[in-house]
Amino acid sequence: MTIKIGLVHQDQLKTQLASKEELISEPVNFLRKGSGQPAILIHGLAASLHDWDYLLPDLASAGFDACALDLLGHGDSFNPARLEDYNIQNVYAHFARWLDSLFPLDAVFLIGHSLGGYLALIHAIRNPHRIKGLVLVNPYYSMDQMSGFLRMIFRHPLFNTSLIRMTPYWLFRILIDLTSLELGLKYRQHHSLPEEVRIQTALDYKRAAPGIYNIPRTLVELYDQLSGLTIPTLVVWGEHDRTLDPSSFYKLAKVLPNSISSPMPTCGHVPHQCDSITFNKLVLDFFFEHR
To answer: What is the pLDDT of residue 5?
Structure first.
């Protein structure tokens, strides 16, 4: 009797390939406003297209075809049933197929926040001729950007998501309110994020598929691939980011050969929601320069 170890039967392989093909072909929920040069807005982990509620109408009014999507497992886009389907390869493939279906020929502007910034970088590395310009907002590109605690958490795969599923909305809301609290003049507390943003953020956390928290452990390092990326790039970040090390964004802007940097001193991880007026102006000025 011959025993074969580590080989996948051809029928199993076809089934696996068909399964992935079906997964990345699942519908994408997105919002589209305006007409003109395409501008694609990509949110971060556990967020949704509502991350861009302040920017989308301004882009449309300025003459851009602005599209914001819900990534795989987020918002109202498809949620895979299997935990192992939540990996960066599937998330990117799902996004890229959607983008190609909308703009098969046009060069686009890409705006990505955090995990969305990582996806924008992957797409730019693979398809530099398809990108008119990049806006990276507190982008992820290396595990070193995270604290030791977060690195420890995300290096281990998820096996049981029941606790995440059972977490109530009010608990997400308390955590978001606590992390947005800041001390102002005379030690008065205030929130760095508007009330409607905190409400939507908690809703997005609650309705996202628990499997998305398996995605970070599948990310690969991008830093060594960035020095050859010559696409015009705007790097924007909040200097009070508590999720990713703010100094890492200076490092990113330095390695990208055709980039400008715009730190926002009063904001944290979501400057596009913290100070949308300043942020939107930065983006529009950059787009007008490179349109």
So the answer is: 35
